[in-house]
Design goal:
about 25% helix; Cholesterol Oxidase, domain 2; five-stranded antiparallel sheet; FAD/NAD(P)-binding domain; three-stranded parallel sheet; alpha/beta
Length: about 525
């Protein structure tokens, strides 16, 4: 293993991949440790008919009790919870969804690419709750501008302050008639709409768009199957001096120099777990592991039917397509509601309603499904979750993973603010669909358990005050100047937007700060 590296990177997803991409292009030699194997898409990706799979595509029962996204078709991607346990109180379920392979969760992300705004970065200034980030939108905007072309983000420039415009491939797609009717209904109720903003680059992942360029510089060495156990500080300086990791296959333990700096980008909870297992590194404030949050989802908050499409009678161009409704609640400071912050929606036209929504069985059910084939119009709510001191993770010393690394105990619950927001989203969604002339088949406001959105954030948050935060405005530990944490754990608030684009921008900004400080010999 090479030892001439200057920066050691933990993780290869959005955070670690962007750190490697940025640093290596600046001439910095990096060593990347990733807990998963290398993906060989040509060798490992095969298509099989359902009848060739032992469980007909549903997977062996009990293997992934908290990964609702998993199926037998992609079971090799998701992390096996029996090998990688975690705990929570019986009345506080948490769904920790993980992937361990080169490229991390970017190999399976939905590619939604939204910027945060000062409604998030300066949230306390707007509504008085929580804490502001130590940076403003203007500080991150230049990095958003550089990340979006790498991932070829498509979208439309709308001028909405809550989702700032960016450097997009223009989305010139037309809307179906049913979507046009829905947009008109939104306009009547002053609800903003736009096209989705999605990354469109080749597979749009770290393993395709970041790591190849980093490797091409000759400055990156990747060590797969390396499960990092802890970061060891120097007894005299307090700086990170060594990193201990375990080979995933052989279970042999290794110890290597930390280099001049360490970048931790293992995903929010894994990064916090690593710091906690490293003697609570960086925790002089007592906030390490606290202020966990995510975005809550209400899947299919409303399922409606477009009447003209029943019985296969849909005219050409009636069905298909979709879009996005950005946050529209509590944008004005004087707005009075039962909750603060806001939510967004995905919406789509087409498909068939779930049989569960039809009160029939057997032949009558089949007849109704045939009548409703291709008629559905659906909406899903994504809502902001307030970071709370009580939502936290700690090390459970009684439980270890298959490699002997102590596991996490996670405590996270939703509060009245989230419940009221979910209820409001259901009522608005129903009004919008009825205003478009759709028949509402079902509505509900039941949120998925915390974590299921795969947008876990916080736990190692930024801040200007070292007494109330773990990181400074450049993702650098207040306490250990040569350790940076650049993934979602650094978030102070999250909005209703998907976080990946912001993680990429933060990691690029932090990596450039590392290179600059190294040049000045500050680290």
């Amino acid at each position: 293993m090479k030892t001439d590296y200057e920066v050691l990177i933990v993780g290869s997803g959005a955070a670690g991949g962007m750190a490697a991409y940025t640093l290596t292009k600046l001439g910095v030699k990096c060593l990347m440790l990733d807990a998963g194997p290398v993906i060989d898409f040509e060798r490992h990706r095969t298509l099989k008919p359902v009848y060739d799979l032992p469980y007909r595509g549903f997977g062996r029962p009990g293997r992934f009790p908290h990964v609702t996204q998993a199926s037998e078709f992609d079971a090799n991607i998701w992390l096996d919870e029996k090998q990688n346990p975690y705990t929570y109180a019986p009345d506080e379920p948490y769904y920790w969804v993980r992937i361990r392979s080169l490229g991390g969760k970017t190999t399976r992300w939905g590619r939604a690419s939204w910027r945060l705004s000062d409604y998030e970065f300066k949230c306390k200034d707007h509504d008085g709750h929580g804490e502001n980030w130590p940076i403003a939108y203007k500080d991150l905007a230049p990095f958003y501008d550089r990340v979006e072309p790498i991932f070829r983000v498509s979208g439309r420039k709308e001028g909405f302050a809550q989702i700032p415009d960016g450097v997009f491939l223009p989305d010139e797609s037309t809307d179906s008639t049913s979507v046009q009717r829905f947009l008109a209904s939104c306009k009547k109720l002053n609800v903003p709409t736009t096209k989705q903003r999605r990354s469109t680059g080749t597979l749009a992942s770290s393993v395709n768009l970041l790591l190849p360029d980093a490797l091409a510089t000759g400055n990156l060495t990747i060590v797969p199957n390396a499960i990092v156990r802890e970061i060891v500080p120097d007894r005299k300086t307090g700086l990170a001096s060594k990193v201990r990791f375990i080979d995933r296959v052989s279970k042999r333990e290794y110890e290597i120099p930390a280099g001049r700096a360490v970048v931790v980008g293992a995903s929010a909870l894994e990064s916090v777990r690593l710091l906690l297992n490293s003697g609570e590194m960086g925790n002089s404030s007592g906030t390490l592991g606290r202020y966990l949050f995510d975005q809550f989802y209400v899947k299919n908050v409303v399922t409606a039917v477009v009447p003209e499409a029943k019985g296969g009678q849909a005219a050409r161009g009636l069905m298909g397509g979709g879009g996005y409704i950005p946050r529209f609640r509590n944008l004005a400071k004087n707005e009075k509601r039962k909750f603060i912050r806001g939510y967004a929606y995905d919406f789509g036209s087409g498909g068939t309603p779930s049989p569960r929504l039809i009160s029939a069985y057997g032949e009558p059910l089949l007849k109704q499904l045939n009548e409703l084939t291709g008629t559905a119009f659906g909406m899903t709510t994504m809502g902001e979750v307030l970071p709370r001191y009580e939502n936290r993770c700690v090390i459970n010393k009684e439980v270890q993973d298959a490699w002997g690394v102590p596991a996490l105990h996670i405590s996270h619950v939703y509060t009245d603010n989230e419940f009221e927001m979910a209820k409001d989203s259901m009522e608005v969604a129903e009004s919008l669909c009825k205003g478009a002339g759709f028949e509402v088949l079902s509505k509900h406001w039941e949120m998925v358990p915390p974590g299921e959105s795969i947008h876990e954030l916080g736990g190692c948050r930024m801040g200007s005050d070292p007494k109330k935060s773990v990181l400074n405005g450049y993702n650098q530990l207040h306490d250990v100047k040569n350790v940076y944490v650049t993934d979602g754990s650094s978030f102070v608030s999250g909005g209703a937007q998907n976080p990946t684009l912001t993680i990429l921008a933060l990691s690029m900004r932090a990596a450039e700060n590392i290179a600059e400080r190294m040049k000045r010999k500050e680290i």
